[in-house]
Amino acid sequence: MALRLPAAAAGSSESEESVDDKKMRRRMSNRESARRLRMKKQKHLQDLIVEMGKLEREKKEMLSACRDKERGHLILQGENGALLAEKAALSGYLRRMKALMNGKPGLKAPAFKSHGKSPARPCT
To answer: Which of 45, 60, 98, 113 would you label with 27, given CA atoms 20 to 30 Å apart?
Structure first.
């Protein structure tokens, strides 16, 4: 058997309404918070997509620049190899010429093969 208080009975319907109002306001507040959070997440995702596109373009440009540098490096390596070979040939030629000028018997004038380049090039 439940005890009911007459004064409490009249006030309980008002308090129930205020509790229901509070619950409804709380629900609306939660929905609005959830909506703002979804919008914030969506904007963050869009920002990340934009940043990813920018980074992909930068990566592509850097890879292209790297390939260009590698090609230039290979060209310079080839030129350096050719210059080293020419240096060795010129050093040998110079050694033989010095020996010839010092009067070493039995030496004949050396033939110089320059591979199409002049033995004396101006330095620039």
So the answer is: 45
Side chain identity at 30, as an amino acid letter? N
List all residues 6 or more positions away from 89 whose beta carbon is below 8 Å from its beta carbon: 112, 113, 114, 115
Q: What is d(CA 100, CA 105) in angstroms, rounded to the nearest whole number? A: 8
Single pTM value for the model? 0.52
Q: Work out the pLDDT band at 105, boundaries 50, 70, 90.
A: low
- Amino acid at the residue 43: K
- How far out from the chain centre does Cα 14 lie? 66
Q: What is the DSSP string of 95-110?
A: HHHHHHHTT-TT--PP
DSSP E strands in the chain: the ranges are none
Whole-number Å distance between alpha carbons of 9 and 15:
10
What is the separation, in whole angstroms, between the first and last Cα of the chain? 114
